[in-house]
Structures are given as structure tokens and as C-alpha cells.
Amino acid sequence: MSTEEKIDQIEIEKEELNNSDNVTVEVEAEARRDSKPTLDELRAELNREYRKHDYTRTLRNTLIVIVVVAALSVLISSFFITVLKVTGDSMTPTLETGQLVIAYNYSTFEPGELIAFYYNNKVLVKRVVGSPGDWINIDDAGRVYVNGVELDEPYVSNPSTYANGVGEGDKIEFPYQVPENRYFVLGDHRTESIDSRSSTVGCVTAEQLIGQVVFRIYPFGVFGKL
Question: Is 126 a catalytic residue?
């Protein structure tokens, strides 16, 4: 092949190469045009971002609410109310075993009110009968007198002077004067309740008090004020 023919061949190959490069550039440009997101795709992506933001904000707000409610529950339980579960038969028919009640953390009480207090690492619920300085007397029929006046006690079951099973050495003598800063308490089920009629339990001191039992929250069929 002559020199001129070789030069012509090289020129042809260079032209073909340039044409190939141009085709490649045109294809890439067309591909870029085809890959542009549509308006609907942009809207869908924007909605996904909004949903992510809303989920994060909702999760954060939910956690804040949970923490605040938990803190308030602890605060209320510590300083204002206490939820108690009733055990035993000493307060029937007013309260039954398994019921849940609320006690407000009061420190002064009136006769006839229900109170909760600590005794030997247990919580007892009884009814206030006598305040500091009152004279208490219970006759052989189980009738209760405070300062010489008989109490009207429609809530009492099985009236008795002392509970069954209380030893002679544990029985206080009537008439009995309630000491200062103490409360004389009785259970509504008088034959079963171990209460202030027993020297073992005695009168309730201020240090033992939890509060006044005012509301029953369970079972729902008897939900309400006491």
C-alpha cells in the first residue's frame, strides 16, 4: 500500500472514531434527559420526607408525654393519693377482698371515715370511731358509745364487744379514753376485725397514717365514692 493510501486510510478511521464519539455523547445526553424525575415523582419524594418528619416528631412527642405522665404519677402517689388493694374480711360488707381503693393523704379525720394505716409492715383499712380525748364504750351487745352517745352504724356486720380469737390479755378495758394524737378504729365486720379493741393493735398514731379511704375504683360494678 502506497503512502498516500495509508494516509487516506488513517483519515477514514479518524472520521469513523469521531462519529462513534458523537453517537456516544448523544446517547448519554438522551439518557440524562430520560432520567429526569417527573413532577409526580418529586411530589411522592416530598411526601416521603414529610412522613419521615411527622413520624420523628410524633415519636418524640409520645416519649415526652410518657415521661411526663410517669413523673406525675409518682408525684401524685407520693404526695396526694395512694392506691390500695383490700385483703381480708375485716371490713365486709363495706369492702371486699380484692377491691381497689384510693386513699387521700390527709392527716386529720372525723368519726365514721375510713382510713388506711401501716401496721407491722402491712396496710390496714378501718373506720374511725374515736378522736383524741374521746371516751369509748362498747356494751355486751356490741353497741358503740362515744362520750356517752350511741353511734348509728348501719354499715356494721356481726356487732360484738371483741373480735373472735382475741385473748383475754389483749382485750382493752371499757370505757377507754383515746390518747392524744391517736385514733380509735374498728373494722365493720366486728367479730373478725382485729383493731383498737386489741392492745396488740391499739390506737393509730400519726406516724402510721396513710390517709382517708374515699373512693373504690375496682371492680367497676361498685365503682364510686365510699
Answer: yes
